[in-house]
Structures are given as structure tokens and as C-alpha cells.
Amino acid sequence: MRWGLVGASTIAAEQMIGAFRSLPGSEVTWVVSGQPAHAADFAGRHGIPSSTTSLDEMLADPAVDAVYISSTNEKHRSQALAAIAAGKHVLCEKPLAMTVAEAREMVASAEAAGLVFGTNHHLRNAATHLAMRDLVAGGRIGRVLSARVHHAVFLPPHLQGWRINDAEAGGGVIPDITVHDADTIRFLLGEDPQEVVALSGQSGMGQGVEDSVMSVWSLPSGAMVTAHESFTHHFAETAVEIHGTEGSIYARGVMTQRPVGKVELVTAEGRKPVPVTPHNLYDRAVRLFAEAVQGHGRPSADGWDGVASLAVALAVREAARRGARTQVDYGA
Ligand code: NDP
């Protein structure tokens, strides 16, 4: 499979080029960037044969099967629609777009064209999250009563660009991290959040966009979720807890790009570690996407998963802005 990169980004450099190359027979053949010097430099550093500032030039190459979009968030919609119009499969970064309507348009267009659309929600590919999902789905903790997601981290200096000061590019911790937590809860519990309340603020990093948010979500089953996302917590460890009538799951250090973290199950029988065999999260996401392109299975997170995670995140932002309970508007 041949990939064209749209966006000469950090995530492409740090994770995704390696993930594409981890698949036998898979190549990265193009990179598209808004700045010619950056495009050429990025291509040179990563051994990518062709670079351009013209998305159309790359899309005109019939040898490109799929594009990976990792530009800033406000560009995702137009780039995805152009790729779909050119008949390319799309793996798009989260958040899919700036609004739910835009995200739905992107995913529906791919569906109408018979193309695979994936959302790069890496966390649901982690061995830890897969193990937690299996415990919940297998009834090991009974009926789920509540969950807690602690995803307050310190945004490293090299990522402190548009994320902390550019609302128009999709900055802020809600589009950046709350979308991941929404996807994680939907994946772990198999339910779509219905209603949210939230408080957001700036705690030392955000300039015109929120850098911290705490929210509470209701689920159709009656279970409740608390979520905390931040860019400013130097020493906090990430965590997920899921509490049920027959047991609790405690996962620490699992809201990360790396294949690390520990999961424990507490039931009437006591506290036990849950064995997991770690693997690279992004390699798995790319493998499942490529298999879906070949007609087998589906991406680990498809386009509609990306629509849903964005809908929850935007409801959290709206709830914080209004100071009121807010329905999640999935747009359908
Ligand atoms: P970056 O800030 O690294 O890159 C975004 C854009 O900024 C690039 O596409 C590029 O524009 C421009 N840019 C970056 N570096 C330079 C440079 N040195 N000179 C000129 N232009 C530059 O973004 P991230 O990698 O942090 O994020 C990109 C997307 O990926 C976002 O949507 C984000 O939400 C998502 N993301 C997802 C992660 C995940 O694990 N799923 C993790 C991190 C990010 P151009 O497009 O014109 O090349």
C-alpha cells in the first residue's frame, strides 16, 4: 500500500511513518506541506521520495492508495474531501474537524464513495485498553456504575504551538485530549455519552484557549463518567478507573502513546494484576486500516467513531461555556 502524508507534522514524524513502514509492502511516497522548504526538509529527513505544496499534485498520483491527514485541525475537512474526491482512502487525525456537521460530511462522503475512513484514536489499540474492554464486556465487574479518566499531562515544549494559542487552528485541550477520552470511554463501555456538565479554564499555558477541563458525563445505562484533561500537570500520572457492581478496574499510566501502563482487577476475590502483552498502538491502528482497505474487517476507530468523539468534546466545551447541562449532539 502506498501512502501520501498530508501535513509534515510531529505525529507523522514521531509515530506514523514508522507505523506505515512496519507493514510489509507499505511505503510512504509523498508528503504535502504548506511550506516548500519544510516539505523538502521533512521528505529528506524521513526518506520520502516526493514532496509538494500542492495537495492536488499528490492526489493526482494514481499510485497513492491512501492519505494520512495530520495537519492542524481546521484543515482536515477540506483535505479529506479532496482526497475522497480523488478516490483515496483516508486515515485522519483527531479531532476530525471543527464541527460535528463537517465531520459527518467527511465520513459520509467516504462512505458514498466506497472508501475506507479511519480516525487515528490510538488509545483503543493499546493492549491495556483492549484488556479492560474485554473485562467489561465479559461481565467481570458486573453492571458498570461509573468511570473516571485522569488525563492531565504536561504538554511538552515542542508541542506548545497552535495547541495553546490558536483557536482557529483547533487549539485547546478539549479538541486535543477530551476527544481521546470520549473515544476511550465509548470503546471501553460500549455506550455513547448523552449529557455533560463541565468547567474549563487556563492554568498557566493556554492563551485564549482552555488548557484544563473537568467534566461529568451521563451514559444511557445510568452510569456516570468524570474526566479531567490538562496540558499543565508536570507530575501527574494518567489513570482510568471503571467501577461495577461486581468489581473495579484500576489502570495507571495508560493514557499515553507508549505501550506501557498497568491494569488491576479488584473483586470479592481480592486484587489481581491483569496480564497484558504490550504492542505498538500505532502499528496496530495502521494494520487494521490496511486490512479494511483490502476488504477485511474495519479500522480500529472508523469515521463515525471520530464523529462521536468530536461530538462529546464539543458538548463539553459548550457546557463549560454556558455553565449548563448540555446534550451531546451527534448530528443525527
Ligand atoms: P504539528 O504542529 O507538528 O504540525 C501541524 C502542522 O504544522 C504541520 O502539518 C505543518 O503544516 C506545520 N508545521 C509543523 N512543523 C513545522 C515546521 N517546522 N515548519 C513549518 N511548518 C510546520 O502538529 P502535531 O503533529 O502535533 O498534530 C497534528 C495533528 O495530529 C493534529 O490534528 C493533532 O490533533 C493530531 N495528533 C494526534 C495524535 C494521536 O496520537 N492520535 C498525537 C498528536 C497529534 P503543513 O500541514 O503545512 O505541513
Automatic annotation (TrEMBL):
Transmembrane segments: none annotated. Residues 1-121 form the Gfo/Idh/MocA-like oxidoreductase N-terminal domain. Keywords: Oxidoreductase. InterPro entries: Gfo/Idh/MocA-like_OxRdtase_N, Gfo/Idh/MocA_oxidrdct_glycsds, GFO_IDH_MocA-like_dom, NAD(P)-bd_dom_sf. Residues 130-249 form the GFO/IDH/MocA-like oxidoreductase domain. GO terms for molecular function: nucleotide binding; oxidoreductase activity. The keyword DNA repair does not apply. Pfam families: GFO_IDH_MocA, GFO_IDH_MocA_C3. The keyword Oxidoreductase applies. This is Gfo/Idh/MocA family oxidoreductase. It comes from Rubellimicrobium roseum.
